[in-house]
Amino acid sequence: MLPFAALASLRGIAARGGLRAASAASALGAPAASAWAAPRRAVGTSAPAAAAASAPEHQQSAEEPRLPQRGEARKLNLCSAVNEALHVALEADDSACVFGEDVAFGGVFRATVGLQERFGAERVFNTPLSEQGIVGFGIGLAAAGGTAIAEIQFADYIFPAFDQLVNEAAKMRYRSGGLFSCSGLTVRAPCGAVGHGGHYHSQSPESYFAAVPGLKVVMPSSPAEAKGLLLACIREPDPCVFFEPKMLYRTAVEDVPAGDYTIPLGVARTLSEGSDVTLVGWGAQVLVLAQAAKAAAALPRPISCEVIDLRTLMPWDAKAVAASVSKTGRLIVSHEAPLTGHFGAEITARIAERCFARLEAPPLRICGADTPFPLVYEPLYLPGVERVLEAIKASAEY
Amino acid sequence: MALAAIAAAGAAGRSGLLPALGRALQRGFAASASADDKFTVEVMPYKAHKIEPPSNQVETSIAELTSMYELMYTMRRMEIAADMMYKAKLIRGFCHLYDGQEAVMTGIEYAINREDAVITSYRDHCQLLARGGTVKQVMAELMGKAEGATKGVGGSMHMYRKQAEFYGGCGIVGAQIPLGAGLALAKKYEGKRNIGITMYGDGAANQGQKYEALNMAGLWNIPVIFVCENNHYGMGTAEWRAAKSSTFYTRGDYIPGLKVDGMDVLAVKNAVAFAKQHVLDNGPIILEMDTYRYHGHSMSDPGSTYRTRDEISTMRQERDPVERVKKLLLAQGVDAGEVKAIEKKAKKEVDTAVEESKVAAPPPMSWQWKNVYHDPVGIKLRTTTGGYVTPSYDPTYTLP
C-alpha cells in the first residue's frame, strides 16, 4: 500500500488537473440574474485567453501534473499496464487473489500473463466458466476481508453475474448495517468495440452498473491511466467494476510510471482546454473526442474544444464537467453504448440542471445507435470522429 | 476396436465380414439393393448412470454411411476453409471451428427428424449444415454477406434455420441450455412426439443455469436430451481443472445419463435414437459425447498452449471421426474411387461457396434497424446520422 501522504499528494495533483476551471465554476453556485440577460456568446469571440493557445501545449500542460514520475517510466500498452498493476497489487497485498477464466495462462488478452508463475497457483487461478460463481466467490472473499480481483473474460459475459453485483456486492455494507462490506472486490472486464467483435464481444455495459448505488464504475482511457485507476479500484473501500477498453489493449501505448501509484476515483481529467465546446467521454471514446477536437481546431473557422476524460462513471465528476460547461456553454457527451437510457443521458440531464443559465446550445449526445451491437455495421454504429465533428459544428452554430 | 468387430447382417440374419466384402466387390455397389442392406457394427459400450444402456451393436447400411461420410467430410472441408478465410482476414470476428467433433452433430441428425428442435452454442457452423443448410449459407454468413444463413447480420456464432427447427448458435456460454429445455416444453405442450436437443460443452456444464434447467426438465418430464459435447477443454482449461466431477453424464444426479464415444457417428446415432424414445416416455437424459476439437477454442487460441501436439496428432490418427467412417466404407467393400468422388464433390462445393461468398454483397446498411422490435408502436430508434427511424419487422429482409 502507498503511504497515506503519498495518496493524499496524488489526490491533490489529480484534483488540480480535473478542476482546472474551478474559478469559472464558482459562478454556478448562485447564477447571477445578469446571466439571463447576457448576450449569447458566439464561438471564438469571447473565449478565455487560454483558448487562443495551440492545442498541443495544452495537452502537455494537462498531462504533465497528471501522474507522479517516480521510478522509470516505460512505454507500455494498456494490456501490459493492467498486467503491471496486477503485479503491484499482488506484491503489496498478501491477501490479493486474481481469478477468472483462463487467467492462469494469461487470459485471452494476455493481461494476467506471468502472475501465476510469480505469485503461485493459490493466488492466481483459473475458474470454471461460471460468471455468477466467479463474482459470488469474489464477494465472499472480499466480505471476509480479502482482496478479490476477478476477471470476467468479456464485459458481454458479465450479465450472469449481474445479480451478484447488484444485489449482493452493492448492498453488502448497507444491508448489514455497516458490519460487512465487499470493499476488497474488483471485477475487471474488457469492454467496447474491437473492430469485428459482433453482438457478444463488443458491448459497453457500464451504465447498467453506474445505476447501482454501492458500486463504483471505472473505465480508463490510456495505459498510465489504466494502471493508476486499477490500483485505486483494488484499494478502494467499495466494490468496483473496472472496464478495460479492449480496443486500446494493443493500440494505446504511452509512458507508464514504474512502481506503485493510484489515481483517485471520481476525479475527471482534462485532456485539452478549450473555450467553445466541452466534449465528455471515457474509455476508448476519449481518443475519438481528442481527434475530433483537433479536427475542429483545424476548421476554417476554428472551434476550440475542451476534452474531458471522465475516468469514473460512478461517482462521476459533475463538478469538473459543470465548470467546463459554464465556461464553454456547450456540451457534447459521447459513448459507444446506445443513446437511449445510457450514461450520456445522466450527464446531459445533470448539466442542464446545473448550468441551465450558462448553456448556449442544447447538450448533445453522440452515441451508438439504439440497436444491438452489430457485426457487419460496426463502423456505421460507432460514434466516430466525423459524427462528433458534425455535432461540434452543430453545437457551435446553434 | 469397432473396425475389427464389424459384422454384416443381411435380411436373413448376421453374417461375417468377408461375405459382405465379397458381395460389395461383386456388385460394386451400383445397385441400390446392396447399399441399403443392413449390417451391424459394434461400437464402444456405453457407460450409464441410473439407466440400462442400449446395446452397442448398431445397425447401419452402406447408403447411410455414405451419406454420413458426405456430410462429415463436407463439414471438415468447410471448417478448414473457414480457418483459411479467417487467416486471410475475409472472415472477421469470433469464429469457433467444429473439426474433430463432426460425428456428434451428424449422429444426432441421423437419429432425429426435422421437427425435433436443436439448439447449440457458438460452435454452430456444422449444426446448420446438418440441419439442411448449405455450405454457401455458412460461408456467406461467416463473411458477413446478405446471402448468409442469417443474412450476414449474425456471423459465425449466430446461424439459424427455422424450417428445420434449428434454433441457432448462442454467444453466451451455457445460455442455450435452459432454452433447449423450453423448446422441448413447447413440443410436449403441443402434444407432439418430438423432442428438444440442447447442446453445450464441458465448460458450460459447470454453469449454474444448467442445473436450473435440469431440475425443471426432470420435475416436469420434459422431452429434452441434454447433449454435453465433452471436448475436454473449456476454452483453455482442461475439464479436470474446471470440474470437480468430469463424468458429465452423471452430473444430473437424478437425471439418467449415458457416456457415448463422440468420435463414432454410429455410437452417437444409436445413443440419440435410444435417448429420443427415453425422453418421450420418461423425461430428460444427459448424453455426454466424448469428443475432441482439433482447432483451438476460437481463432485467437492456437490450441497448443494447454495441450500437447502429441495429444492432438494421436487423436487425429486413432480416433478421427471422419476417417472412421471412411475406413468402415472401405472395409465394407465400397470402391475407393467412389469415396474419392464424394470427397471431390465436397471440396468443389466448399471451394465454390468460398469463391461466391467472397464476391457476394454485404447487407444494406438500412438493415441495421430491422427486426429490433416486432411492432414498435410509437417507438423511434435513433440512427447514426442523427435521424430517427421506426424499425421495421421483416423476417425476409427484402431489399429496399
TrEMBL record, chain A:
Entry superkingdom: Eukaryota
Assigned EC number: 1.2.4.4
One of the protein's GO biological processes: response to nutrient
InterPro entries: THDP-binding, Transketo_C/PFOR_II, Transketolase-like_Pyr-bd, Transketolase_C
Biased composition (Low complexity): 47-59
Region Disordered, annotated ranges: 47-69
Keywords on record: Oxidoreductase
Coiled coil: none
SUPFAM superfamilies xref list: Thiamin diphosphate-binding fold (THDP-binding), TK C-terminal domain-like
Keyword field contains Transferase: no
Reported cofactor(s): thiamine diphosphate
Domain (Transketolase-like pyrimidine-binding) ranges: 76-251
Protein name: 3-methyl-2-oxobutanoate dehydrogenase (2-methylpropanoyl-transferring)
Automatic annotation (TrEMBL), chain B:
Annotated ranges, domain Dehydrogenase E1 component: 72-363
GO biological process entries: pyruvate decarboxylation to acetyl-CoA
Cofactor(s) required, per the database record: thiamine diphosphate
A Gene Ontology molecular function term of the record: pyruvate dehydrogenase (acetyl-transferring) activity
E.C. no: 1.2.4.1
Catalytic activity: N(6)-[(R)-lipoyl]-L-lysyl-[protein] + pyruvate + H(+) = N(6)-[(R)-S(8)-acetyldihydrolipoyl]-L-lysyl-[protein] + CO2
The entry's keywords: Oxidoreductase, Pyruvate, Thiamine pyrophosphate
UniProt cross-references to Pfam families, sorted A to Z: E1_dh
Top class in the EC scheme: oxidoreductase
Coiled-coil boundaries: none
Keyword match Glycoprotein: no
Its job: The pyruvate dehydrogenase complex catalyzes the overall conversion of pyruvate to acetyl-CoA and CO(2). It contains multiple copies of three enzymatic components: pyruvate dehydrogenase (E1), dihydrolipoamide acetyltransferase (E2) and lipoamide dehydrogenase (E3).
Subunit: Tetramer of 2 alpha and 2 beta subunits.
NCBIfam families associated with the record: PDH_E1_alph_y
The protein's name: Pyruvate dehydrogenase E1 component subunit alpha
